[in-house]
Amino acid sequence: MLLFATSRLLRAALTILFVMTFAFVVLRASGDPALLILSVDAPPDAIAAFRKAWGLDQPLWQQYLSYIGHALTGDFGKSMRDGRPAIDLVMERVPATLALTLPALALKIGIGIPAGIYAALHRNTFADRMTMALSVAGFTMPSFVLALLLVLIFSVTLGWLPASGNESPANAILPIITLGTAGAAIMARFTRSAMQEVLGQPFVRAASAKGLAWRRVISHHALPNAAIPTVTIVGFMVGSLVAGAVVVESVFAWPGIGRLLVSSVANRDLAVVQALLMVIAAWMVMANLAVDLAYGWLDPRVRSAVGATGH
């Protein structure tokens, strides 16, 4: 198990380094931030002074080595807009994003898994077809369309909920529903498929033939085996929560890291964008790492395969 965990940690570190490198190169290849922040009409001396102050006059490789060296010490640079440390600006927004994403994750799991199990146990019935029809509608509808539809119904027409801001807990209801709907639909379909595959396995039929109660067959034999593939989709959803919040936070004017990413990209604030992408990448990598470790715990064959191959 130690070798399994070590190999996954090394892979996670290399993935984060790759994301940081990719973001560094792409952001500098996309344009000169000095021209955007100072405007193209600024005097050449002012533009040159700005580039020198922020190290943009150095060769790209030298900028990269300086960035990586400082990042290893926890210094991700300062915002070109207000001079504050970029990581401080990002971490200030994390609680607001978690206030949406964690309840949305609970909504996805709390609705999607039971719905998928129910549909699998009532295969080809009206309830099954209705559940799958709703799930298709849920994950095919773009999040911004659903967000605007919810605002139109519950804010504009009925006046029950606020449409933007974060002044009260009521402001979070519509964003959470928007974030959770597609995930719950995907979870329902995936869980149904996993359960149906397990229910057709010989060991389930053998357990039933032994005279075990059907409830016990489901809870002690079918569900534990269906949990292994379901862990994959849960890990994917955890990893994509922060990235999915970008659109939702912009629509509902929610002050999280998704909205900060949009404004920082528009302002070409390199240090803040790089810090944001690093945090998002770390979140997704840690989610996938947790899935890998959960696989190793749920299925010993995974640990055995890693020990045999060494990676």
UniProtKB/TrEMBL annotation:
Protein name per Swiss-Prot or TrEMBL: Peptide/nickel transport system permease protein
Transmembrane parts of this sequence: 98-121, 133-160, 172-190, 226-252, 272-295
Entry's family note: Belongs to the binding-protein-dependent transport system permease family.
Gene3D superfamilies: MetI-like
Cellular component terms (Gene Ontology): plasma membrane
Lineage of the organism: Bacteria, Pseudomonadati, Pseudomonadota, Alphaproteobacteria, Hyphomicrobiales
ABC transmembrane type-1 domain location: 94-295
Places the protein is found: Cell membrane
Membrane topology classification: Multi-pass membrane protein
One Pfam family cited in the UniProt record for this chain: BPD_transp_1_N
PROSITE patterns: ABC_TM1
Top-level lineage group: Bacteria
First-listed, main subcellular location of the protein, grouped into a coarse class: membrane
UniProt keywords, alphabetically: Cell membrane, Membrane, Transmembrane, Transmembrane helix, Transport
Species the sequence originates in: Enhydrobacter aerosaccus
UniProt cross-references to InterPro entries, sorted A to Z: BPD_transp_1_N, MetI-like, MetI-like_sf
GO MF annotation, one: dipeptide transmembrane transporter activity
